[in-house]
Amino acid sequence: MEITGKTKIMFVLAHPVDHVRASAVLNTYFQSIDDDVAVSPLHVLPADLGAVLASVRLMRNVVGFGVTIPHKTGVIEHLDETTPTAALIGAVNFVKRTADGRLIGDNLDARGFVASLAQHQIAVRGRKVLQVGAGGAGRATAFGLAEAGARELTIMNRDGAKAHALAEAVSRRYPETKVNAGRAEARAFDLIVNTTSLGMKTDDPLPLDIEGVGPATAVSDIIVTPEVTRLLEQAAAQGARTIGGKPMLDAQMALVARFIAR
Ligand code: ATR
Q1: What is the pLDDT of residues 122-135, one digit of tens each?
Q2: What is the whole-number distance in angstroms between the Cα of residue 133 and the centre of ligand 1?
Q3: Can you give the residue ranges of the Quinate/shikimate 5-dehydrogenase/glutamyl-tRNA reductase domain (predicted)?
Q4: Whole-structure pTM over 0.80, yes or no?
Q5: Does the residue 3 lie in any domain?
C-alpha cells in the first residue's frame, strides 16, 4: 500500500501499544474497499492525551482515530461532541476529526457487537441473555443488547456493585427489558456473553460455569485473541452455537468507514 499526501490518516491511541490489533484490521478493511486510508497505532500516555488531541486537531490530513485501553473514558473531556450512544455508555472508541478540526466521539462497540450476532443468525429480540462482566466493554454490550430488544438481561460480575450499577443504568434507559444483577444458572438462558478478560490467557479459569448448556443456547465471547477461547471450545463441545470477538471487530470496520465519511 502506498501512502501519499492524498492518503487519509488515522491513528489508534493506546497504552500499552503492543497488543493493538485494530490498526491492522482497519488497514486490511480499508484496502479491501479500496479506500485510501492508512492507520497507525500511536503510543500515548494518559497524562499526555490532552496535548496529543490538541495536536491532532491541527493535523489536516487526519480523518479520525480509534481509542482503546486505557483512554476510552479519559478522551471524552477533550472532545467537542460525543454521540448520544457514547454518552450513554460513558466511553468512546472512535473519534472523527472534521475538516475544521472538531473532534466527535462515538462508541461503535454496542452496534458492532449486535451486528456481529445478527450476521451469525443469533437472535437477541425477545431472548433471555446472561452477560458476565460489567467493565467498559460490558457497558457497551449491555446497552446494545437492551437496544436490540432482549427480553431479559442478567448481569453477573466479580464486583457485584458494578453489575448492579450497570443493571440500573440499562433498566432506566430501556424499561421494556427486565434487567437483573447477580449470579444465575447458565442453562436457563438463550444467549450467554462473556465480556470479562478471562480467557485471554490460556490458564485463566472459565468466566462462568456452563454446565447443562446445549444446542438451545448461543455463547458469545468478545475476546479477540485468542479467536477461540476455552469458554467457546467447551460450549461448542456441548453443542451450543458460538461466536468470538473477531466478528464484532470486523462489524465495526464498516461502521468506522461510514462514521468518518459522514
Ligand atoms: P474492558 O474495558 O476490557 O471491559 P475493564 O473495564 O477493566 O476492561 O473490565 C474488565 C472486566 O473483566 C470486569 O467486568 C472485571 O470484573 P471486576 O469489575 O470485578 O473487576 C472482569 N475481570 C477481570 N479480571 C477478572 C477476574 N480475574 N475474575 C473475574 N472477573 C474479572
Answers
A1: 999 999 999 999 99
A2: 6
A3: 117-197
A4: yes
A5: no
Of 15, 20, 21, 197, which is best to mutate to test ligand 1, by the most ligand atoms within 8 angstroms of its C-beta? 197
Please answer whether residues 243 and 251 qualify as being in contact, where contact means their C-beta atoms are separated by less than 8 angstroms. no
**146 and 76 co-located in one domain:** no
Give me the number of domains the chain comprises: 2
* 3-class secondary structure, 40: strand
Our answer on whether the CB atom of 164 is closer than 6 Å to any ligand 1 atom is no
E-strand ranges in 215-254 read 218-221, 241-243
158 & 223 share domain: yes
Give yes or no for residue 134 CB within 6 A of ligand 1.
Answer: yes
Catalytic one among 6, 8, 72, 246? 72
Residue 81 within a domain: yes
Structural domain for 103, as ranges: 8-107
Question: Do 117 and 241 reside in the same domain of the chain?
Answer: yes
Going by alpha carbons, the residue nearest to atom 26 of ligand 1 is 198
Predicted complex: ipTM over 0.90: yes
- Helix and strand numbers, DSSP H then E, in the chain: 8, 12
